[in-house]
Design goal:
Layout (H helix, E strand, L loop, with lengths): L1 H11 L1 H14 L3 H13 L22 E9 L4 E8 L3 E6 L4 E6 L2 H13 L17 E9 L2 E8 L9 H15 L6
Antiparallel strand pairs: 1-2, 1-5, 2-3, 3-4, 5-6
């Protein structure tokens, strides 16, 4: 009997199965719960984003002066964290929710990796991914200033994985967390 029902469902296609499931949930009084769950999952969905490949600026043409501003906000914990980094390696991290500020001098090895990213970061023509509707995601905002050039990027937990600069944002997030944990002090 069960095998025959499964065959009939496959023959009718998934659409009929979904309609039958909706009728069953409605009879059981679970329709509002299932509807809310489906709405929540749709709210956290985002569109696929295609980004332009980052361009490389030769190190000799990169102005010696650059500055990075990076923030992580949101999530269930309501984070409000900011990171400022100068081309000299001076790092300032602020956690507004905790009222904590930390300054540190980054080691040369870390600065080499960051300089590499600053030279490769995509120009302003990179398309910004659409804002997803995920209410409990972390939001990442990055601004790189190279001389008079200003590049801004915004991502969240949903669309960050598709970004070419995701490893750079992850590096900055790691530095922010380490500084607040007291692992990067001057």
């Amino acid at each position: 009997m069960v095998v025959r029902e499964n065959r009939e469902r496959l023959a009718r296609g998934w659409g009929a199965t979904v309609v039958n499931a909706a009728k069953m949930y409605s009879r059981l009084g679970l329709a509002p719960i299932v509807g809310a769950a489906l709405w929540f999952m749709a709210a956290c969905a985002s569109q696929r984003v295609t980004l332009v490949q980052p361009t490389t600026i030769p190190a000799e043409t990169l102005r010696s002066e650059w500055h990075i501003s990076f923030s992580v906000t949101g999530g269930l914990a309501g984070l409000q964290r900011q990171l400022e980094l100068s081309d000299e390696g001076r790092l300032t991290v602020v956690d507004k929710a905790l009222g904590k500020e930390v300054t540190a001098q980054l080691p040369e090895e870390t600065m080499r990796e960051i300089r590499s990213w600053v030279t490769r970061v995509a120009p302003a023509r990179v398309s910004t991914p659409p804002i997803s509707r995920c209410r409990d995601c972390l939001s990442y905002k990055l601004e790189v200033r190279r001389g008079t050039e200003r590049l801004s990027f915004s991502y969240d937990d949903i669309n960050l994985s598709e970004a070419e600069i995701a490893p750079f944002i992850e590096l900055l997030s790691r530095l922010l967390t380490q500084a607040l944990a007291g692992k990067l002090t001057s």
